Amino acid sequence: MTTVLLVEHNRMLRTTYAAGLSGFGYHVHEATSITQAFELLKGGLVPDVLITDWKLVGGSADELVHAVESVSPNVRVIIATGHANEVTCRVDHVLPKNTGIFDILGLI
Predict the structure, then answer these.
(1) What pairing do the DSSP bridges indicate for beta strands 49-52 and 76-81?
(2) CA distance 68 to 46
(3) Looking at residues 35-61, what average pLDDT do you find?
(4) Does the model's pTM come out above 0.70?
């Protein structure tokens, strides 16, 4: 089963993505902030996919991507943001915020 770390402060968007991904068989771990995401990683989470916003509560996705890559070097990174021009880390896909779940599923 593919494990997804989903980091998004917007509750409606996060729960929509989580429900959609879970419904298609993905094992989803949700975090509302970079701090929560770091706690999941410290607890042993090794995600296959990271889906995150660029601007996070408590830090940036750049920090998060580096932390996730340290435990999962081949992680697929998908950033859904309204700040695409600011993305500076390795990323597989940058999408507009509020991208539909079927578009995200096509990239995993």
Answers:
(1) parallel
(2) 8
(3) 91
(4) yes
Predicted confidence (pLDDT) at residue 86 exceeds the cutoff of 80: no
Separation of alpha carbons 72 and 44, rounded Å: 11
Residue with tokens 């995993």, as numbered in its chain? 108
DSSP of 30-58: EESSHHHHHHHHHTT---SEEEE-SEETT
Rounded Cα–Cα distance for residues 104 and 97 (Å): 11
| % the chain with pLDDT above 70 | 94
What is the overall mean pLDDT for the chain? 90
Contacts of residue 47, defined as CB under 8 A and 6 or more positions apart, other chains included, come to 3, 4, 5, 29, 68, 72, 75
